[in-house]
Amino acid sequence: MYDVIVIGSGPGGYVAAIRAAQLGMKTAIIEKYPTLGGTCLNVGCIPSKALLDSSEHYHNAAHTFKTHGINLDNLEVNLEQMIARKSEVVKQNVDGIQFLMKKNKIEVYHGLGSFVDANTVKVTKDDGSSEEIKGKNIIIATGSKPASLPFINIDKDRVITSTEALKLKEIPKHMIVIGGGVIGMELGSVYGRLGAKVSVVEYLDAIIPSMDRTMGKELQKSLKKLNFDFYLKHKVTAVENTGKEVIVKAENSKGETIEIVGDYVLVSIGRKAYTEGLNAEAAGVKITERGLVEVDAHLRTNVPNIYAIGDVVKGAMLAHKAEEEGVFVAETIAGQKPHINYLLIPGVVYTWPEVASVGYTEEQLKEQGVKYKTGKFPFMASGRARASMDTDGVVKVLADANTDEILGVHMIGPRTADMIAEAVVAMEFRASAEDIARMSHAHPTYTEAFKEACLAATDNRALHI
């Protein structure tokens, strides 16, 4: 009998298992696939960032090295090697998770985990054999998979998801991206940097629509320099693979139909919770109409000893959100009183420039009727950004009009994925814009832009614009 059984070994699952083991609980983890790490490490966060870095190196070599005084001849992309390096990065990471399981004495079972009852899970291996294990507490961490539209046939050849986009054999001439969210913009920019034309078809009126609208506008401006076209407020009605081409038909807000012809279509309209084969009903666990596992504020399902975390429950589908929930549940089972502030879980888009955000957007504050003030600082005015030729973007700080407390921070620019952590710390400690403005920031650094935006939010005191 285990104290804790975790079903799924993505960032939520493996972190939950590690924390449970640290707290002295006998722990097991079940993974359907041969390698640990889930979507994030195998076909999500890690491989996409590897390709983003490689493609950015190539793009800089092709477009900015000459300005830096570095002359190159006969520059070319070796896509096979780029994909191979990505695979090696993935292997190093998943091997690292395997090491952590051994280090923490967590027993690993490979196979499909399905409930027999509220304390028993059957593990079915690929060869059809199975065994049952029992646990006092069970954590569902089965993650998500790419969503699609009913009329789209994802053939994994010309019509692909993010999984196939990570292992293409050629650079597309024209990639059509359905969906202007994070995944589409990141993978679209990989191939845009390598020379592909990219057309983005988005149903809403902005890209990365869940983030502050200023970020979407700024990112759109930057991506247009990479030969991106945008079809906003367009509803996809048909996708046809003719063999060597793909035709996407979309309807605009006036009811007019357009046709876009490319050689690959990336379907990136989001992800949906994955509970296939879990047999949750055998344990009496409720699944919502949207396919999510229903949980309370403590991430407990309607069955007291069963919890759920990560993409399979409500909230943003982010690896670091799943990790926080994994720790939260392990500590809850151990009798502790952990806490997660969901408002302060940052979101990041790993394009270049990067986009990072935490707290309320300007649109949310307007909707809530909160009186706020805004401070902005463009990277064009940053000495560090000028030195590195990364002058696209802006830092935007939203502060309470009366108390000056920081309510939201939105950044697009170089290394904002790392810079946002300062904003998270500030907001966790209820800092004011004045607090950040009074702190010394090393010069020259990108983080000075955050300080300057805070100065701009406090009586328009920015020093360098």
UniProtKB/TrEMBL annotation:
<feature type="domain" description="Pyridine nucleotide-disulphide oxidoreductase dimerisation">
    <location>
        <begin position="345"/>
        <end position="453"/>
    </location>
</feature>
<feature type="disulfide bond" description="Redox-active">
    <location>
        <begin position="40"/>
        <end position="45"/>
    </location>
</feature>
<dbReference type="InterPro" id="IPR006258">
    <property type="entry name" value="Lipoamide_DH"/>
</dbReference>
<dbReference type="GO" id="GO:0004148">
    <property type="term" value="F:dihydrolipoyl dehydrogenase (NADH) activity"/>
</dbReference>
<keyword id="KW-1015">Disulfide bond</keyword>
<dbReference type="GO" id="GO:0006103">
    <property type="term" value="P:2-oxoglutarate metabolic process"/>
</dbReference>
<feature type="binding site">
    <location>
        <position position="270"/>
    </location>
    <ligand>
        <name>NAD(+)</name>
    </ligand>
</feature>
<keyword id="KW-0274">FAD</keyword>
<keyword id="KW-0285">Flavoprotein</keyword>
<dbReference type="InterPro" id="IPR050151">
    <property type="entry name" value="Class-I_Pyr_Nuc-Dis_Oxidored"/>
</dbReference>
<feature type="active site" description="Proton acceptor">
    <location>
        <position position="443"/>
    </location>
</feature>
<dbReference type="InterPro" id="IPR004099">
    <property type="entry name" value="Pyr_nucl-diS_OxRdtase_dimer"/>
</dbReference>
<feature type="binding site">
    <location>
        <position position="311"/>
    </location>
    <ligand>
        <name>FAD</name>
    </ligand>
</feature>
<feature type="binding site">
    <location>
        <position position="202"/>
    </location>
    <ligand>
        <name>NAD(+)</name>
    </ligand>
</feature>
<feature type="binding site">
    <location>
        <begin position="179"/>
        <end position="186"/>
    </location>
    <ligand>
        <name>NAD(+)</name>
    </ligand>
</feature>
<comment type="similarity">
    <text>Belongs to the class-I pyridine nucleotide-disulfide oxidoreductase family.</text>
</comment>
<dbReference type="InterPro" id="IPR016156">
    <property type="entry name" value="FAD/NAD-linked_Rdtase_dimer_sf"/>
</dbReference>
<dbReference type="Pfam" id="PF07992">
    <property type="entry name" value="Pyr_redox_2"/>
</dbReference>
<dbReference type="Pfam" id="PF02852">
    <property type="entry name" value="Pyr_redox_dim"/>
</dbReference>
<feature type="binding site">
    <location>
        <begin position="317"/>
        <end position="320"/>
    </location>
    <ligand>
        <name>FAD</name>
    </ligand>
</feature>
<feature type="binding site">
    <location>
        <begin position="142"/>
        <end position="144"/>
    </location>
    <ligand>
        <name>FAD</name>
    </ligand>
</feature>
<feature type="binding site">
    <location>
        <position position="113"/>
    </location>
    <ligand>
        <name>FAD</name>
    </ligand>
</feature>
<feature type="binding site">
    <location>
        <position position="49"/>
    </location>
    <ligand>
        <name>FAD</name>
    </ligand>
</feature>
<protein>
    <recommendedName>
        <fullName>Dihydrolipoyl dehydrogenase</fullName>
        <ecNumber>1.8.1.4</ecNumber>
    </recommendedName>
</protein>
<dbReference type="InterPro" id="IPR001100">
    <property type="entry name" value="Pyr_nuc-diS_OxRdtase"/>
</dbReference>
<keyword id="KW-0547">Nucleotide-binding</keyword>
<dbReference type="GO" id="GO:0050660">
    <property type="term" value="F:flavin adenine dinucleotide binding"/>
</dbReference>
<dbReference type="InterPro" id="IPR012999">
    <property type="entry name" value="Pyr_OxRdtase_I_AS"/>
</dbReference>
<dbReference type="GO" id="GO:0005737">
    <property type="term" value="C:cytoplasm"/>
</dbReference>
<keyword id="KW-0520">NAD</keyword>
<keyword id="KW-0560">Oxidoreductase</keyword>
<dbReference type="InterPro" id="IPR036188">
    <property type="entry name" value="FAD/NAD-bd_sf"/>
</dbReference>
<feature type="domain" description="FAD/NAD(P)-binding">
    <location>
        <begin position="2"/>
        <end position="326"/>
    </location>
</feature>
<keyword id="KW-0676">Redox-active center</keyword>
<dbReference type="InterPro" id="IPR023753">
    <property type="entry name" value="FAD/NAD-binding_dom"/>
</dbReference>
